[in-house]
Amino acid sequence: MKIGGWLLNASRSNPFNRWSSPVLVHVVEAHYRGDHRVWLKFDDGLEGEVDLASELRGEVFEPLRDTSYFAAFRVDHTLTWPNGADFAPEFLYDLVRETNRTRV
Question: What is the pTM (predicted TM-score) of this model?
């Protein structure tokens, strides 16, 4: 489907689209687990641990490479940091689902 010059994927079941979560979700709890790992719980009950080290690309995420700064996150519907960095909760949700699938 094309909308205003943008091509949109009509299928939300595409396994290669990591940002395909069709449900609005929020992080309700998070615990630092060392390095760049965080245990997350979402408002629908999904929970699990993710390693965000490979996701820290770009200028806004540069300070998060320091693990002491990374550990300073807070929960505001998602993970946020003092410098304004955050991750979309849907992205984190999909990472947790993917990580949980590969651990089984």
Answer: 0.77
